[in-house]
Amino acid sequence: MEPELWDKLARGKCRSETEPSESTSAGDYRIKRQRTVREEAHTVRSSLDQLYRTFPTDRFSYMFPPVVFRHQLYSCLPQKTRTEIDREVNAMRSRKEIRCIKLGFTGDELALVKQDSFREHVRGYARDHLKNPLIIERFLDFVDNFDISISTNDLKKDRAFTDEDIQSLVLVGVLIVREVGTWWLSFPGAGQFMKTFLSGREKVLTMVKKAKYSSVLESELIKRGLPKRCLGMHYTIHDVIGNDLVLVSDTTSGRLLRFRH
Prior knowledge:
Blueprint: H1 3-18, H2 26-41, H3 44-53, E1 68-69, H4 70-76, H5 82-94, E2 98-102, E3 110-114, H6 115-129, H7 134-142, E4 149-151, H8 152-156, H9 163-172, E5 175-179, E6 182-185, H10 190-210, E7 215-217, H11 218-224, H12 233-242, E8 246-251, E9 254-259
Antiparallel strand pairs: 1-3, 2-3, 4-6, 5-6, 7-9, 8-9
Helix pairs in contact: 4-12, 10-12
């Protein structure tokens, strides 16, 4: 086949895959594009990005990085099963796009922090609170291959960290005692984050409980809002729904939240 003909065929193939051809109406192309956008919006990545973008770190003087709990995604993505969501989260963990932090009081409550945000926040805090911030650089590289927890033996292996180093890491807040000889990986300000997070949760649950018939529309809660010392109504609604703290029903007016007695 002549080279010119190959070029024409190649150009025609590329055009048909990316833009409407003469045989395809612009309307059909728009429909396909809209469908693609909707599908992209219904992913764990897009939901995480949306929650991260709206997280009010500036309101709290950057005391903690943007944090999203895995169970909040169950509320953001009702069209997906929890198994499907967990699978996508685990894939992002494997690619080291996010770091999982054990926060909360139950074994299945996992906080998800973007890897870049985690490292940036820890570095910033260490610069202001450690005499030797290089310890943090070594720590960040070292724990890159660990998930959620780490043992004292791992930290001391090949003399990677001394007892004094470990004490500095505890002081900064990146290590929290799990049990004798093991540590949860964490971030500076995790305690303040949980205090703020639980305060918002309690306020939303109180609103639902005190509403008529202990039921209230999601849209009504959003109108009421939360005090600025909380993390935001949208964020907190996804918490109480995703963590099964309220019963949820779909109505013609939107989701209805009902208090669990």
